[in-house]
Amino acid sequence: MVMAILQFGRCRALVALSAVGLSLGWMMGTGPARAQSASQTLTYKATVATICTIQHMSGGTSAVLDFGRHLNVASVHVMDLDSGGHGWSIRCNKATPVPVTVTLDAGEHEVSGQRHMAGPAGALIPYDLYRDSALTKALDVPFEIDIPTTGASPIIYGRARVPAGTHDGFYFDRVRITVAY
């Protein structure tokens, strides 16, 4: 703080001037100090992306359509195995146009347009995927689905035809699900 003696005519005054800046113009007779101001426009923005997610009904991103465990079918001509259905969920935000198109590829072990599960020694078990429990709506072509505000939960059904003489072992395939919007 700085102390100064100011004289106005015959009057003297001891005035304290602070380092933050007291306007000397007022004390010197040039008028009162005025507050300075500045303004700036601030812009706020957000982007809402159009997005859909695919999840297994139990919450994960990977799903298993399990045909179960069966005895060796060497003595059986052909065995049909039904999966009983498997649920998965498609969730899209409200910015996503509906309906969306869902496509399942032919899988990792497709031969001549037929999906197969691969097993020991290159053995294959053919299977088909369906949209309905009656196994009449095959999932070989893209299909459209409406996504309500809570999401859609389509179920995939499967049927495998195990040929006679199929080797014992674990058989699997992976099918990619794509949602286009």
Automatic annotation (TrEMBL):
InterPro entries xrefs: Spore_coat_component, Spore_coat_U/FanG
Protein's UniProt name: Spore coat protein U/FanG domain-containing protein
Organism superkingdom: Bacteria
Segments forming domain Spore coat protein U/FanG: 40-178
Pfam assignment, any one: SCPU
